[in-house]
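ok here's the first one, seq then struct tokens
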Amino acid sequence: RMGEIRDAVQARSLTNVQISSYVPRKQVAASLRVGDVHVVTLRHNMVGVAVPSKLYGILAANRPAIFIGPAESEAAAVEDAWTFLGSLLERPPAEWHAGLTARAAPA
């Protein structure tokens, strides 16, 4: 896949894309914090066989990720859950406000 991505970047003359290969373990955390957005891919034939573990590191570094792969994969489920949790933090449900109001009321 790396070759396909490099070709697409080159064909479009994209100058704001950085493609990294292997990063030594001691440099992974710093490397993951650098990207504005990370791309994680998984082929259809790898569902149930492999999980792109870099997705967990990207999320732990609090960086956004775009997952390109099958919807039935674990990575897609993780990304969906992360997106859902983020939306709750940005716009909490009315029930949260009601609960906070109730706890703040005099007994």
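and now the second one, same deal
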Amino acid sequence: PHKLRQPPPAARRAITLAFRAKRHIFAHRYAEALEVLDAYAALSDADAAALLLRGAVRRSARDLDGAIADTRAYTDHRPDDARGHRNLADMLAQRGDIDGALRAIEG
């Protein structure tokens, strides 16, 4: 039988935090989710997934400015990922910044 290799401790911590955040999100406990996502994002500046998820949580919690900031940071880390640009455009349009939304889509 093949034994599964355990990920390194930092990766295990990141996976655990991501699942904890999702558990809070599904329960609509956005403040708790944001606390966990802050810890997740602090593990690595390169972990853009935390920024995208934190932006979505902030949007759900009606913190549009925070959501836009996190989503912009995500698109800086992952400029080729259309999800970030689409989410950013949606939020900017929601705010009434149609020109900014178009710039976000055009990348």
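notes on #2: The mean pLDDT is 88. The helical segments are 9-26, 30-43, 48-60, 64-77, 82-95, 98-106.
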